[in-house]
What we know:
Layout: H1 3-24, H2 28-48, H3 52-76, H4 89-111, H5 126-134, H6 139-171
Amino acid sequence: MSGELLAFFILSLIAIAGGVMMLNLTKVVHMVIALVFTFLAIAGLYVLLSAEFVAVVQVLIYSGAITIIMLFGIMLTRHDDRTEAKTGKGRQWLVLASVIAFFAIMFYGIRNLSLGEQATTLHVKNTEQIGMLLYSKFVIPFELVSIVLLVALVGAIILAKRDDKEKEGESQ
Length: 172
């Protein structure tokens, strides 16, 4: 087993474990931390794919900025921190079987995948290729995503302020 394959399996298990932990944890801040582990593992997978630029963007934007925005959203909004009823063992076994089946299907599909000649040049100047496409062909979707993120942040602030005003009105 080569080192690259071993790194792939370790990073994949970390990403899957982070996702499963995010779904099963009860405290919101712990969920965000599990999500950070998933984001970092995915960045490691990008490095294995020779997509260093995408890996750095993954760490900066998702592990950094998106996580900070999620934490601000948690802090600015009111939420009940009650623990929910635990799910039964049958449901947990069903989820585990589904994850294993998904992994087996993906492994079989990727193992028999042939990318042809096009995939051999993807790692050559990938940052330049991404920049050229991003600022020529995909400039409008790029700007629309930034506007959607800004609107979401402003909306979270407005909702948090409205909740504060309602809380002040109830206490008086």
